[in-house]
Design brief:
Layout lengths: L31 H10 L6 H24 L6 H15 L2 E2 L14 E4 L2 E3 L13 E10 L2 E10 L5 H20 L7 H13 L3 E2 L5 E3 L6 E5 L15 E4 L2 E3 L5 E3 L7 E3 L5 E3 L2 E5 L4 E3 L4
Antiparallel strand pairs: 1-4, 2-4, 3-12, 4-5, 6-10, 7-8, 9-14, 10-13, 11-12, 14-15
Helix pairs in contact: 2-3, 4-5
The structure holds 2-amino-4-trifluoromethylsulfanyl-butyric acid (MF3) and cobalt (II) ion (2 copies).
């Protein structure tokens, strides 16, 4: 015999089985919606317990990023920022997710992407100098849960073009967060970002995207910042990043053929990025990587 949840209950009450003698689910069991998202899209809608873990990981990630941004001054090398990052992760009892990640294994604990570098810049001995813009990207693992956030720092007096990409990428991130809520297709994020960026004469990188996060560093769904047709509706319990990379010139990036990580704009024009980890709630989105 094969009962369905909506069948009349076997006890003869006349009520649906699910409203009557349907076996109580253990707390760890996934809801029907979570099961659907998992099967259909490979997306994990997080349980309250998982959300608490991710929330804590994100809070520490945001704090470490803030301390690194404060330390980013003229004359400080990005390698020194990486060394400080190692210390801060250790003190907080968390693991830097980038270290050893991917292929070839990423060699440092943070990404530092300067000027024409779009993303995945590797800390090195170059000191920050007047006129630089630098993205610092921190991702950490706390008790198995992940957080990921990045900000731009500006050093001294920057050119109007650099100021443009820094400001536009920030505005793109917050416009995208503002439309995020249950039922809205994931494509709405790319829609608002590309609309705004192009209205300001900038381009949107499409080779790198935001991502689900929480139980691993990069999970489903893919979160494109450019125009796309991803019709998956956002749903409560989804955790993902939005991290628009905005260029002053062309959108194309070129991966460094030697280190296989650093991505630079094809035309050498500046690029900027801001990133938050978000939780979709019942009526909107909560930024988990706020200070
Ligand atoms: N933090 C980056 C992101 O936002 C990923 C960096 S992967 C690394 O997804 F290996 F380069 F660190
Ligand atoms: Co990310
Ligand atoms: Co990141």
């Amino acid at each position: 015999m094969n009962f369905e949840r909506n069948d009349p209950c076997w006890c003869g009450s006349g009520k649906k089985w699910k409203k009557c003698h349907y076996p109580a689910m253990p707390k760890t069991q996934l809801s029907e919606q979570a099961l659907f998202y998992l099967k259909e899209f490979n997306i994990l809608l997080k349980t309250p317990e998982q959300i608490e873990g991710i929330r804590k990981a994100c809070a520490i990630t945001a704090k470490i990023l803030d301390q690194l941004c404060t330390a980013a001054r003229p004359g400080v090398t990005t390698l020194e920022l990486d060394q400080l990052s190692r210390k801060l992760h250790k003190e907080a009892g968390v693991i830097p997710a980038p270290l050893g990640y991917g292929e070839p294994p990423y060699p440092k604990t943070i990404c530092t992407s300067l000027n024409e570098v779009i993303c995945h810049g590797i800390p090195d001995t170059r000191p920050l100098q007047d006129g630089d813009i630098c993205n610092i990207d921190v991702s950490c693992i706390r008790e198995g849960y992940f957080g990921d956030t990045s900000r731009m720092v500006t050093i001294g007096k920057i050119s109007p073009k650099k100021k443009l990409v820094v400001d536009v990428s920030y505005e793109c991130l917050y416009r995208a967060i503002a439309v995020a809520k249950p039922g809205v297709p994931i494509s709405a994020i790319g829609q608002v970002i590309e609309d705004y960026a192009t209205s300001k004469g900038c381009s949107v990188v499409n080779q790198f995207i935001g991502h689900g996060i929480g139980l691993s560093f990069h999970e489903a769904p893919e979160v494109c910042h450019h125009y796309n047709n991803n019709q998956i509706p956002m749903a409560p319990g989804m955790t993902f990043t939005i991290e628009p990379m905005i260029n002053a010139g062309v959108r194309e990036g070129v991966i460094d053929p030697i280190d296989h990580w650093t991505v630079r704009t094809k035309d050498g024009e500046p690029s900027a990025q801001w990133e938050h980890t978000l939780l979709i709630t019942e009526d909107g989105a909560e930024i988990l990587t706020l200070l």
